[in-house]
Design goal:
CATH class: Mainly Alpha
Helix content: 55-70%
Shape: elongated
Radius of gyration: 31 Å
Distance between the termini: 68 Å
CATH superfamily: MetI-like
Strand content: under 5%
Number of helices: 16
Structural class: mainly alpha
Oligomer: single chain
Number of domains: 1
Strand order of the largest sheet: 1-2
């Protein structure tokens, strides 16, 4: 997963400044579109679990039943229906994954933006603190936070969010620093705009798409991380049916040959994480790829492309073509100018009506920078 995030970060460097649109979703590969459909179905299953689950996830029936017509996924060691618990577990696992990623995105974006626009020594201090947090073993740090705050969904969201905030902060900082080298940011600086205003009005909207794509991978990581915490009894306690709890409760059953208790929740975790990773990579590839030209437009431009190649191969022919085109444009301009009747004729024998010397215009709101600097005219 770490290698996947590293490769995704490198791809996102080429997508900085691009906005996510419906065109990018249409340009995704078939795998990305299938992943989006599967994830939509999983989210719908979590939302309507109350109506489609065959049984209550906490109700007790005959224990250790293999999959059959009445219990399609079988029952666990306590007699609870595995299928119903998996459906309800999607709700809790997705809530933890999305909630912890949103927490990390909020604080990571603020920290990364501060590190990108503040003084060098402040930026270095912020990033070194992020490095220190990332150097701790993630599962140990999250377990400590859960123990201190108590085993609950909010504490688990905060614990996992703390782990991913430094990663998002680094991505935000890299994208903002890349955008600060663009011409539109320099133009805003020349106009005297302050860094917070430039960041909020211009830079963030151009960095939003690649950052959100990266957070999709963080959601997948958070779902797996919740299951890992449940295995060491540092997650949400029983009987809350998260996917991690269902897997952790199935350990003894798997050793005794009751494979169904761990197979189905494990499959749902695997499919969800795999689809999230494929979706993030598909969106990134679609954003990085150039837009495809329509087929008809490509046919119409074929002859012009051949002509351009011929001009590149023969410099003398290219020079003659440029001179001919320039002469034609100058002749057309000359003809238009000769037909003008509204031309103004300046009179030099009378004093000027208005004379301006050394005109300067400043905006106090943007630091008193001269937008117009020592302009003189009559």
């Amino acid at each position: 997963m770490a290698q996947f995030r590293e490769g995704l970060s490198q791809k996102m460097e080429s997508t900085s400044g691009k906005k996510l649109s419906l065109r990018h979703l249409k340009a995704m590969s078939l795998g990305g579109k299938i992943s989006l459909v599967v994830l939509t179905l999983i989210v719908l299953m979590a939302v309507v679990a109350n109506f489609i689950a065959p049984y209550d996830p906490l109700s007790i029936y005959t224990a250790r039943l293999a999959p059959n017509g009445e219990f399609l996924f079988g029952t666990d060691d306590k007699g609870r229906d595995v299928m119903s618990r998996v459906m309800y577990g999607a709700r809790y696992s997705l809530l933890i994954g999305l909630g912890s990623t949103a927490f990390a995105l909020f604080f990571g974006a603020i920290i990364g933006a501060l590190a990108a626009v503040t003084r060098t020594w402040i930026s270095e201090v912020i990033m070194r603190v992020m490095d220190v947090i990332m150097s701790f073993p993630g599962i140990a740090l999250a377990a400590t936070v859960v123990i201190v705050m108590g085993a609950s969904i909010p504490s688990l969201i905060v614990a996992i969010g703390i782990l991913y905030a430094p990663q998002i902060a680094r991505v935000v900082r890299a994208n903002i620093m890349s955008e600060y080298g663009q011409d539109y940011v320099r133009a805003a600086m020349v106009n005297g705009a302050r860094a917070p205003w430039i960041l909020w009005k211009h830079v963030m909207r151009n960095c939003l798409a690649p950052i959100l794509v990266f957070t999709v991978v963080c959601v997948a990581d958070a779902i797996v991380f919740e299951a890992s915490l449940a295995f060491i009894s540092a997650g949400i306690p029983e009987p809350t049916p998260t996917w991690g709890n269902i897997l952790a409760d199935a350990r003894a059953g798997v050793l005794s040959g009751r494979w169904w208790q761990a197979l189905f929740p494990g499959l749902f975790i695997m499919v969800t994480v795999l689809c999230l990773n494929i979706l993030s990579e598909g969106v990134t590839d679609a954003m990085a790829a150039p837009p495809a030209a329509p087929l008809q437009a490509a046919d119409d431009n074929l002859s012009s492309d051949r002509e351009a190649d011929r001009l590149v191969a023969d410099p003398k022919l290219a020079y003659a073509a440029q001179a001919e085109a320039l002469e034609a444009r100058l002749a057309a301009l000359r003809d238009v100018e000769t037909r003008r009747t509204d031309r103004f004729e300046a009179r030099t024998d009378v004093p000027p009506i208005l004379e301006v010397k050394d005109l300067c215009i400043q905006f106090p709101r943007h630091g008193d920078v001269n937008v117009v600097d020592h302009l003189s005219f009559v």
